[in-house]
């Protein structure tokens, strides 16, 4: 018997997993019974039940005839406890129900799918973060090459604070090797072989 819907977790991508559910319902009930007005004692009348007259025996003496001589007469009253008291009843407790799906395999598959979906969302977030940082790097670098930047110390200057443009408007020291004249070909010096004549 299902007391209520299972707790459902949604992870995106249409993945929803339902887990075991524990329902605890505390309760407090009370009952008070009393009678008013409260009377601890009452006067109990004692009626006259004598039957001495109304008939005669064989000797002519008066005897009872089965009818009270003084019906309804109260001889005296006696004080009697009523036994009246208030009744109090207090009940405190709780009821609990434990609901668990019967097919654990489906639960495990849903948990695995949820983990995969979380990893996918984390990767998509990381990709978007990378795209944002690369776009920021390129935009800041292009503006710096053109000499456009936020005023240092301003609130927005921190956007491009960690961007550095290398070789901007500068030529770093470098060397070129220049061959000596002896290593040049004769054709490069402009002197032909015919001009090289040894004089006596």
Keywords:
single chain; alpha+beta; 2 helices; 200 residues
Describe this structure in words.
The chain is of the alpha+beta class and 200 residues long. 23% of the residues lie in helices and 28% in strands. The strands form four sheets. It has a two-stranded antiparallel ribbon.
Which helices and strands, and how do they pair?
Blueprint: E1 8-12, E2 15-18, E3 21-33, E4 41-47, E5 54-56, E6 62-64, E7 74-81, E8 87-99, H1 104-145, H2 186-189
Antiparallel strand pairs: 1-2, 3-8, 4-7, 5-6
Number of helices: 2
* Biggest sheet layout: 2 strands, antiparallel
Task: Provide mean pLDDT, rounded.
Answer: 81
**Helix/strand/pairing category:** alpha+beta
**What Rg is obtained from the alpha carbons, in whole angstroms?**
58 Å
Number of strands: 8
Low-confidence runs of at least 5 consecutive residues: 191-200
Q: Could you give the distance between the termini?
A: 130 Å
Fraction of residues in helix: 10-25%
Series of H and E elements: EEEEEEEEHH
Q: Report strand order across the widest sheet.
A: 1-2
Q: Which percent range describes the beta-strand content?
A: 25-35%
Apparent shape: rod-shaped
